[in-house]
Write a structure and sequence with these properties.
Elements: H1 2-23, E1 39-43, E2 47-50, E3 61-67, E4 76-84, E5 92-94, E6 96-99, E7 105-112, E8 122-128, E9 136-137, E10 142-147, E11 155-160, E12 164-168, E13 173-177, E14 182-189, E15 208-212, E16 218-228, E17 242-247, E18 254-259, E19 269-279, E20 282-287
Parallel strand pairs: 1-9, 2-10
Antiparallel strand pairs: 1-3, 3-7, 4-6, 4-8, 5-7, 8-10, 11-15, 11-17, 12-13, 14-16, 16-19, 17-18, 19-20
């Protein structure tokens, strides 16, 4: 009887161990995802761009599209990069294509930028970055040619005298804005001393602005001219700083020059501020 009871006990114990071991299954097999890398095909139209006609506020773009035959369970990121050509990173910007999980295609743009550098015609080859982690790529090259080099030959000049003064006496307090004074920016030929007739900076605006371009190579004098001053008889006795700011976009020619010869009591007068030397599209500005 004892032997029978022992046998029954052992059978019961072995059944318990078997059931327990089954209940402790870690389901490892259920966590395995069978992922097969898709093959991505890129497409885009080769292009020739006229740099001189580029609008800096709305530069031209070339769209590149990536596609796969069937959706996958992860996002695919495909950065576009330069793979060849004589252009450099200042000439373009390129985005990253992201095919979102569940989709089969996506696009991004290559943007061609207006640089103003002296470069001549350039070529640009765009492809995908190497080693996309979760996809294979078919070979792809987008070929872009950039012709008609844009060279900025305009020196932008601004005459600025903005400011104000508060005046108070026994009877009144008032604020006087310097922009009520009318200054002009004039350009004289340094060799002949003659007015060039460029009157873009001879208006009633504050500040006055001139796009210095179109004149022959040579030296020119920038002159600040007080045309009218409604405060001349007020006795305010306040200095009026007059500043010339200059800049040639895409070049290193930029700076400012301030003169302190005018006041709210000034009745007029022309004051030379700087010499501008023009040599082709290159400008040198020298304070007077």
């Amino acid at each position: 009887m004892k032997n029978i009871n022992k046998i029954l006990f052992l059978l019961t114990l072995s059944s318990f161990v078997f059931i327990t071991s089954c209940n402790e299954d870690d389901h490892t097999g259920d966590s395995i995802i069978n992922y097969s890398k898709p093959t991505v095909t890129l497409s885009g139209m080769d292009a020739t761009i006229d740099e001189n006609s580029i609008d800096s506020d709305a530069p031209p773009t070339i769209t590149v599209t990536a596609s796969i035959s069937a959706p996958v369970q992860v996002d695919i990121h495909i950065p576009l990069v330069q793979t060849g050509g004589s252009a450099n990173g200042d000439d373009f910007s390129a985005g990253t294509i992201v095919i979102v999980s569940g989709d089969t295609s996506a696009s991004t743009d290559v943007t061609i930028l207006k640089t103003g550098d002296v470069e001549g015609s350039e070529t640009l080859e765009i492809g995908a970055a190497d080693n996309i982690a979760n996809a294979n790529l078919n070979p792809f090259t987008l070929n872009i040619t950039i012709n008609d080099d844009y060279i900025n030959d305009v020196l932008d000049i601004e005459l600025n005298w903005d400011g104000e003064v508060e005046y108070e006496d026994d009877n009144t307090t008032a604020t006087y804005n310097f922009c009520a004074m009318d200054f002009d920016l004039l350009i004289f030929d340094a060799t002949t001393g003659m007015d060039t007739g460029v009157y873009d900076g001879a208006t009633t605006a504050c500040p006055e602005s001139v796009g210095f371009t179109g004149l022959p190579d040579g030296d020119y004098i920038l002159v600040a001219s007080l045309y009218e001053n409604p405060y001349a008889a007020f006795g305010l006795e306040e200095s009026v700083p007059v500043t010339i700011n200059y800049n040639q976009e895409f070049f290193d020619t930029n700076g400012s020059i301030t003169i302190n010869d005018y006041s709210t009591d000034s009745t007029g007068g022309d004051i030379p501020v700087a010499i501008v030397t023009k040599n082709g599209y290159n400008y040198t500005v020298t304070p007077w």
